[in-house]
Amino acid sequence: MSVLARSSIVVYLMCLALIGCEDEQLPPPDDEGTSKSLIEIDERFSATVQADRKMMLTNLAFVVQPDPIKPRSMGVSLTTVRPGVDGSRMIFGTFVQADSLSDLTKSNVYLSAGRLLNPYGNGIFTARATYQPKFVALKITGFDDEEVRGTFSGDFYRFLTVRPAMRPEIIKVEATFVAALIRYTD
Which of 84, 161, 82 is nearest to 119 (CA)? Predict the structure, then answer.
């Protein structure tokens, strides 16, 4: 096929594309009076974390659900419902031997992870670093129908975002939290 024939085909296809675009309606312009939706920040349910720097994570929930396979066991997780403006988020989850939330106040919940970075596992994830629990104790200090209060502390592996494959540093982390209580029942 000659260059002239190929050029003619390209011009013809471009014309068809332009003709087809005329029939499509463009979306309406944004109203200047409406603002873009922002990420909601709920500071009532938040954690204050002291690590190599001080952080505040908002929009926390404490989820409790019975384990259908094992009697006297339940799954618990402490997580951010929505990441922060900078993308910071937290998730800790495990199974514990307890009948109720009252039983959890009588002992610690222990969390741990490996020395290799797991972006889908337990930890605190920020733009600067990821903190995975080496050995951490989570303690529920109180609760009511709407919220759970507690602390967690221990050794964390810190992985820097700019060098995620490097050997992690072990640092001490202490935190206090208040989280919305979400209960799942049978």
Answer: 161
